[in-house]
Write a structure and sequence with these properties.
single chain
Amino acid sequence: MFKSKTILSIVIFTTLLILTSFVKNQTRLIEKNISKLTEKTNKLEKILHESQIEFYYLSSPSYISEKIKIFSDEQYFSISHSNIYSSLNEYKLNNLKITESLNAEKKTDK
């Protein structure tokens, strides 16, 4: 009688120990998957948010200008098209022309 109870309790204990270990490993794997998926969704939400901002700006710059005026303490000025350069070389050429014209003005003033 005593032996059968002992054997039964050892079998139950061992079974529960193994089950606990299995469940713990499975939950760890699930938590890792959840973490990876959360990271992915955060990245996608960020990309979506940036895309929405870009869409709003491209579709309605006046709306964004108004919002900036409402929520910003600093004054907002939009960039004129003449100040936007399509490449670095264009910017350098423009600065070179400005520098040359300033140098020419200084030489004539002397």
